[in-house]
Amino acid sequence: MSTAYVLLLVSLAPWLACAQGNGCAAFQSALKSTYDFKPAKLSGADRESKSAAMDKIWAEVKADPKELAPCLESALEDPGADAWFLFDGSGLLLMVDPSPEANQLILRGCEKVDFDDIDLSEWIRRLTRLAIADIDISTAAARWMAYPNPRYVLPRHAFTANKADGAFFLYGSMDEAQATPALQRIVSDVSHPARSVALELLSQQLTPQSLDVLHSLDLSGFPTDTRKAVERALKSPQTLQPRLHPKTTRAEFVSAFQAIVNRDFGPFMDLVEKVPDGEKDVVAVMSPADLPLIRKVRRCLAATGNPHQMDMYPFFTRIIQTLLSAKSA
């Protein structure tokens, strides 16, 4: 690089910085004038107007992410950023800049946004995606557990998710090392409205930590049905009988399970179609050394937010219990 070119860059640096700053200033001014409302309080006409303004912001950022993504990120990082803007804007940022910083802003938006302003299914979806990436979502999940009667509809599945369903998706997708203490805080609070929901989730985890918590709990304050279910789970855990002559190999399971971790359920569903009771083969060909992968697969099932995947979760819980029993034998 010639000396003259370097001197030219140096002489232009203040102008370039000013131009970039002005560009951000104009864009951020547009952000403030656009995101100056609460969606739940908008009338029909105002809603259409604001929706069009937000669409324009999204189109601009997607058309020029290199220039505008840093401006958007800067606005989102403002400690005084509007809660609705945090939620909507962080979703846009993630589309153009899938970075750890964007993930943290997504999390912050989910922790602060007013539930009345959002589609709760989208809120759940964002958090379970973060949970599978091993990001601690327990602060946001605690909001769901404390909220009175949260519900959302999944028309595609003809399913209405309630508090227990959403809690399953959230805490089931979390790393157990993060979920266990979060659930313990809830079950230890005798006044918490979701105490029984948290206890049921805790009883499904089957980790040394969660079992220690369950054994140490005073269950007398819980509903009779809930208490008896936990006591049965502790005294008579459900295990599977390994198939004597497995129809599926360990290599096939490992390949299918790793595909699930990579968000591809196709190979696993092919195995299920071929051998519907394949859980008997899993406990025959896999060992306690495979538990980390199997636990991650179970978390991925919860993270889908799909009610049909909920049916598979108990089978993986029994697989885990069976392999744990083999480990302690």
Concise account of the structure shown:
With 329 residues, this protein is mainly α.
For the record, give the distance between the C-alpha atoms at the N and C termini, rounded to a whole number. 70 Å
- What portion of residues is helical? 55-70%
- What class would the helix/strand composition place it in? mainly alpha
Q: What is the overall silhouette?
A: globular
Describe this structure in words.
By secondary structure, the protein is mainly alpha-helical. It is 69% helix and 2% strand. α4 (83-96) runs antiparallel to α5 (100-112). It folds into 3 domains: 23-118; 163-235; 250-328.
Secondary-structure map:
Elements: H1 3-34, H2 44-63, H3 65-77, H4 83-96, H5 100-112, H6 120-132, H7 138-146, E1 152-154, E2 159-161, H8 163-173, H9 176-187, H10 195-205, H11 208-216, H12 224-235, H13 250-261, H14 266-274, H15 279-285, H16 291-303, H17 313-328
Antiparallel strand pairs: 1-2
List keywords for this structure.
329 residues; mainly alpha; 3 domains; two-stranded antiparallel sheet; 17 helices; 2 strands; 2% strand; globular; disordered N terminus
